[in-house]
Write a structure and sequence with these properties.
The protein is about 15% helix and about 25% strand.
Length: about 140
């Protein structure tokens, strides 16, 4: 809340009054969608870029496999999807995790096109704030 207050005060100082503030909590295993691997694409949405621009896609949790038990997916929780399309990367991920987890869910993919990319228009009237599990802001808010 303190971060939102600071942002609102700064925006007011700039004379901007209509802005959407979106607060995201860091994903955890108890949230819906915990079983999704986020595949970040390039702006054309035709190749996997990865969060760091290196084509590496990661899954942050242990997979509680119905058959094999708890395990790290991919290679140390990562897949190398350089030069892959998002669909090819997703197929690779799904092939590497053929079993449902103990909750009965399969691994799934969420394809994310960066702001400003195909179908995800960049907006100057929206601020994203990402919170860590302890409710603190650990990275700068982003206008997108």
């Amino acid at each position: 809340e303190k971060c939102v207050e600071i942002i609102n005060n700064d925006l007011e100082d700039l004379g901007i009054s209509t802005i959407e503030v979106v607060v995201h909590e860091k994903r955890n295993l108890s949230q819906e969608g915990y079983n999704k691997v986020v595949i970040v694409t390039n702006e054309l949405a035709d190749r996997v870029k990865g969060r760091s621009g290196d084509g590496i896609v990661s899954y942050p949790f242990q997979w509680d496999d119905q058959v094999l038990g708890s395990r790290t997916l991919g290679v140390d929780g990562k897949w190398d999807c350089r030069e892959s399309t998002p669909d090819e990367c997703c197929a690779t991920i799904k092939q590497s995790v053929p079993n449902k987890d103990v909750r009965g869910n399969n691994i799934e993919c969420h394809i994310f096109v960066p702001f400003g990319g195909v179908g995800n228009k960049r907006r100057n009237d929206r601020v994203f704030i990402n919170l860590s599990p302890d409710g603190r802001v650990h990275e700068p808010p982003m206008i997108a």
